[in-house]
């Protein structure tokens, strides 16, 4: 349940970031596109890690890689938990 809530919040962050970039929001919300670029860079690294180390644990590695890019560690966590168990 907690992971699902985190995924919903992450998806909301991406939607708001895209809206802020398209509509040119000012003030504090104007920083969302910049923060989104930083988060996307981190998610690229997480996706690369997933692809190199964890894709063998996935039934559909391409779909899981896309979800790791969107949701980051919140999606990759189930693969990491099975890795350490």
From TrEMBL:
InterPro entries assigned: DUF1145
Q: Name one Pfam family in it.
A: DUF1145
Its keywords, alphabetically, are: Membrane, Transmembrane, Transmembrane helix
Chain ranges passing through the membrane: 30-51
Top-rank lineage group of the source organism: Bacteria
Specify the protein name.
Answer: DUF1145 domain-containing protein
Q: Which organism is it from?
A: Thalassolituus pacificus
Q: What is the lineage of its organism?
A: Bacteria, Pseudomonadati, Pseudomonadota, Gammaproteobacteria, Oceanospirillales
